[in-house]
């Protein structure tokens, strides 16, 4: 692992532990045992570190995106795989999900990247739903506009679940993965056959 990768790894650990409000590049460098100058050689600003971490999160989702080419797999199997994979990413990049609106306001290029991602995924997911509707596993009579709105609803539920869990679920001792799994299954329930 090179210095840049070590910086990202350490920053991710610190942001997940402490949040984004108080963490500085100096603190990251200190906890790594390197000089602030060495860190700034790789990342000039805190925003650059967070943007790089966000790009890693995007790449993680890109690797697991649900595509209709996965023929022969039931929708339930595909959904369960998505739930497990997305939960792993949510847990790994927890600080982004718990502070997403603040991060987007602070670092506009993350907000712009997210908007492009949602737009791209809308078409992919609508095609996926139609593919499984043709296979008799997803409701087929849903208007296209409603499918697009459902995709937006899925982004809201998935991307902001962590914030809700941090406020409501964690205090009640609810298992986070099980809560996430049930939340996503409930969102899909009206659409499945």
Uncertain stretches of 5 or more adjacent residues: none
Major sheet characteristics: none
- The global form is elongated
Could you give the count of β-strands? Answer: 0
Helix content: over 70%
Distance between the termini: 47 Å
The CATH class name of the largest domain reads Mainly Alpha
The H-and-E topology, N to C, reads as HHHHHHHHHH
Task: Name the CATH superfamily assignment of the largest domain.
Answer: Tetracycline Repressor, domain 2
- Write down the CATH topology of the largest domain: Tetracycline Repressor, domain 2
Number of domains: 2
Backbone CA Rg: 19 Å
How many DSSP helices?
10
Strand % is under 5%
- In the CATH hierarchy, the architecture of the largest domain is Orthogonal Bundle
Structural class: mainly alpha
Overall mean pLDDT stands at: 91
Essential attributes:
2 domains, 193 residues, Arc Repressor Mutant, subunit A, Tetracycline Repressor, domain 2, mainly alpha, single chain
Descriptive overview:
- The chain folds into two domains: 44 residues, Arc Repressor Mutant, subunit A; 146 residues, Tetracycline Repressor, domain 2 (Orthogonal Bundle), CATH 1.10.357.
- The protein is built from ten helices and no strands.
- Helix 7 packs across helix 8.
């Amino acid at each position: 692992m090179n210095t840049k990768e070590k910086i990202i790894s350490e920053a991710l650990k610190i942001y997940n532990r402490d949040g984004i409000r108080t963490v500085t590049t100096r603190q990251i460098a200190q906890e790594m045992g390197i000089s602030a100058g060495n860190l700034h050689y790789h990342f000039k600003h805190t925003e650059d570190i967070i943007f790089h971490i966000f790009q890693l999160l995007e790449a993680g989702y890109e690797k697991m995106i649900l595509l209709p080419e996965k023929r022969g797999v039931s929708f339930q199997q595909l959904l369960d795989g998505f739930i497990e994979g997305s939960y792993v990413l949510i847990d790994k990049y927890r600080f982004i999900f718990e502070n997403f609106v603040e991060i987007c306001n602070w670092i506009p290029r993350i907000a712009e990247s997210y908007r492009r991602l949602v737009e791209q995924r809308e078409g992919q997911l609508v095609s996926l739903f139609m593919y499984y509707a043709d296979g008799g596993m997803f409701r087929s009579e849903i208007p296209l506009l409603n499918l697009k709105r459902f995709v937006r609803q899925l982004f809201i539920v998935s991307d902001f679940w962590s914030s809700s869990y941090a406020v409501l679920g964690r205090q009640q001792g609810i298992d986070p993965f099980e809560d996430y799994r049930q939340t996503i299954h409930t969102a899909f329930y009206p659409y499945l056959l």
